[in-house]
């Protein structure tokens, strides 16, 4: 609400309460006054004060979140894994595994300009199901085997980078 409108409504509330009740209600005015008060506090705060307040707010939020998690899992030690699995499921359904990046599109465009539309078709196929795992698009298993020495891992990483560049 524009501050001038609020001032007019407050003036109307004082001078003609019946008309004010027809136009607005006290809850709306109270919310607007609260917003203006918070805005005034924000404008008058220094950067350091804001930083401290934000840290306090985040700390309080994390504390409440931990308490909520504790209540959810209270007496259900076997439910911890089920809750974790459900969270992973929700995250996987919300966050795509594949996101079209400029370099991927550019490689497909360059290939198409040279008459090879296979890369465009591959990118389109991948983007049809961006939330699911798609065989043939993940890094080869030889990229991240444990137990390799540092030099061997470096070679595998370089091969993986070449693989990615070549296949994208």
From TrEMBL:
Keyword Aminoacyl-tRNA synthetase: no
Protein's recorded name: Selenoprotein O
Gene Ontology terms, MF aspect: ATP binding; metal ion binding; nucleotidyltransferase activity
Coiled-coil stretches noted in the UniProt entry, renumbered to this chain: 29-86
Highest taxon of the lineage: Eukaryota
Alphabetic keyword roster: Coiled coil
């Amino acid at each position: 609400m524009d501050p001038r409108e609020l001032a007019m409504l407050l003036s109307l509330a004082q001078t003609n309460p019946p008309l004010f009740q027809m136009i607005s209600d006290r809850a709306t005015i109270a919310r607007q006054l609260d917003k203006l008060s918070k805005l005034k506090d924000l404008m008058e705060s220094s950067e350091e004060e804001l930083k401290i307040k934000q840290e306090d707010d985040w700390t309080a939020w994390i504390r409440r979140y931990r308490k909520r998690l504790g209540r959810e899992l209270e007496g259900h030690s076997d439910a911890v894994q089920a809750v974790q699995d459900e969270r992973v499921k929700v995250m996987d359904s919300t966050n795509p595994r594949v996101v079209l990046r400029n370099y991927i599109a550019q490689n497909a465009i360059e290939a198409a300009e040279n008459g090879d539309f296979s890369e465009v078709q591959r990118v389109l196929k991948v983007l049809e199901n961006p939330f699911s795992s798609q065989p043939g698009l993940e890094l080869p298993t030889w990229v991240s085997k444990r137990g390799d020495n540092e030099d061997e891992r470096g070679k595998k990483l370089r091969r993986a980078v070449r693989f990615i560049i070549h296949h994208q």
